[in-house]
Amino acid sequence: MSKPTPPDLPIIQKTYDLVKWYVPVLNRLPRDHRFTLGERIINGLYDLLEGLILARYSQNKLEILEKLNTRLDLLRHQTRLLLDFSLLETKRYEYVGKLMHDIGTELGGWIRQQRQRPAKA
Question: What Pfam families does the annotation carry (predicted)?
Answer without folding.
Answer: bAvd
